[in-house]
Amino acid sequence: LKKEPGLMPGGMKLAGGILMSPWTNLLCNTPDYYVHAYARSEDGVRTGDVLTKTGPRKSMETYQSVAKDYLGGDAALLDDPVASPLHAGAAELAPTT
User: Fold this and answer.
1) Nearest-angstrom CA–CA distance, 77 and 87
2) Pairing verdict, β 46-47 and 39-40
3) What is the mean pLDDT, run by run of 10 residues, along the chain of 97 residues?
4) SS3 assignment, position 11
5) In this structure, are residues 67 and 77 in contact, taking their beta carbons and an 8 Å threshold?
6) What would you report as the CA-atom Rg of the chain, rounded to the nearest whole angstrom?
7) Alpha-carbon distance 78 to 87, whole Å?
8) Which pTM does this prediction carry?
9) DSSP secondary structure, 42-57, as one string
C-alpha cells in the first residue's frame, strides 16, 4: 500500500495491521521445519508434524511445492512480500499514522 497509496479510499492511512495468514514464509526455510519435525519416542509418543510424518527436509520440500502451486507455479514469487509477508520490509508495509 505504500507503493500504491491510491488503493486506500479517500487518502486514508492505516493505524496498524495484523497479519492473519499462518503461512507467512512461503519459502519454508525457517528452523521451525526442523524443530517441529515428526518424531516418535521409544514409548510411542508422537510429536511434531504428525500430518506429514516425514523428516524436516521432505516436509520443507513438500510445503514449498504446495506454495509454488498456490502461486501458479512461479517459484520467483516465493519470497514476494505480497504473497509471503515475512519478506516484507518498510517499503511494502502500509503507511501508519
Assistant:
1) 11
2) antiparallel
3) 74 72 83 79 82 80 92 93 85 70
4) helix
5) no
6) 18
7) 9
8) 0.62
9) TT--EES-TTT---HH
